[in-house]
Specification:
23% of the residues lie in helices and 33% in strands. The chain has an 8-stranded antiparallel beta sheet, covered by helices on one side. Strands 12-11-14-15-16-17-13 form a 7-stranded antiparallel beta sheet. It has a two-stranded antiparallel ribbon with strand order 1-5. It is an alpha+beta fold. The chain is built from 4 helices and 17 strands. α3 packs antiparallel against α4. The N and C termini lie far apart (97 Å). β8 and β9 form a beta hairpin. It folds into 2 domains: 122 residues; 112 residues, Immunoglobulin-like (Sandwich).
Length: 303
């Protein structure tokens, strides 16, 4: 074997040895990380352990909120038709179903000394068997945490104050509003307006409607569903908004999206006295407020 071949064999051997050492070190690091994670998990204090939660009830100083799981879906008990974004109760269940404590107070004082004789906040989770678990929040401990106790155990813990953020969303924050499509003169095919039994049609294939299509597309394209007048209107109350079948204006906009033809239905009601009109979309039960100016553009009428 000549000198060059010997050098090559030595280099290959060194490389192989380095690879073995490298993978050995990586294995040791992963093992240590796993061990550290297991030790940390073992030392973590969980003060609740609730599975299959079916009812959430809490009060953080702004009245009681109650959510129930019905047929696999979370609903707002006071108004089951409310368009609830289920990610909110799911997050509450994730946080409080297995609530992590920072520490347990050993040989603590009376509950009153921590504000737990008259809790500031409370939350109760009920599982599918009807078993209830209640968490009570007392005073702020002064280090971004609260004193808490669970049920009637009288054991006092501290938990990070951030957990309360899951309970401090307003009902409006938890509403899942309708999605509104992107419509413009480039993809609007046709608009049909029906009012008082009379129908007006603007068709993009009609050369005489070019300006009309551009005008109504300008209105449809700037609609924003962010102002809500009623989250779950009952049929008997539609007339209050001028949205009953007899009073409303119906707008059917045919547009293209991803090479497919779709139809958006808008129901336009009366004005609210503040420069807006009441509007509903498709088969939703939410009543929105859209400026009268935008509605006039959609209807292709002068202000």
């Amino acid at each position: 074997m000549d000198k060059k071949k010997k050098q090559m064999c030595i280099l290959c051997g060194v490389l192989l040895l380095l690879l073995i050492v490298y993978f050995g070190i990586q294995t040791m690091i992963k093992h240590q990380e796993k061990k550290t994670k297991e030790e940390k998990e073992a030392s973590t204090i969980y003060i609740t352990d609730v599975e299959d939660v079916s009812l959430i009830n809490y009060d953080v100083g702004e009245g009681t909120q109650t959510f129930e799981k019905q047929d696999g879906n979370w609903v707002y008990v006071k108004d089951p038709d409310f368009p609830l974004d289920e990610s909110y109760p799911e997050q509450i269940v994730e946080t409080f179903g297995k609530l992590k404590a920072e520490r347990e107070l050993e040989d603590g004082d009376e509950l009153a000394d921590y504000g737990l004789d008259d809790p500031a906040y409370r939350i109760q989770l009920t599982d599918e068997n009807g078993d209830k678990t209640s968490v009570y929040f007392g005073n702020d401990s002064g280090d971004d945490s609260y004193y808490v106790t669970v049920d009637d155990t009288k054991k006092v813990y501290t938990v990070n104050s951030e957990v309360l953020q899951d309970l401090q969303h307003s009902l409006e924050d938890m509403a899942k509003l309708d999605e509104y499509p992107t419509i413009g003169s480039g993809n609007l095919k046709k608009e049909v307006i029906t009012q008082n039994g009379q129908t007006t049609t603007y068709d993009s294939e009609n050369d005489d409607d070019t300006e009309n299509i551009a005008a109504v597309a300008g209105g449809l394209g700037v609609v924003s569903l962010d102002k809500v007048a009623d989250y779950s209107v009952e049929d008997e109350h539609l007339s209050e908004y001028g949205l009953d079948e007899k009073s409303r204006i119906t707008v059917e906009a045919t547009y293209s999206e991803e090479k497919k033809e779709k139809v958006l239905t808008l129901y336009i009601g009366k004005e609210d006295g503040s420069g807006n009109r009441y509007v509903m979309i498709n088969d939703s039960k939410i009543v929105y407020l859209i400026s009268t100016e935008i509605c006039n553009n959609i209807l292709n009428v002068e202000d």
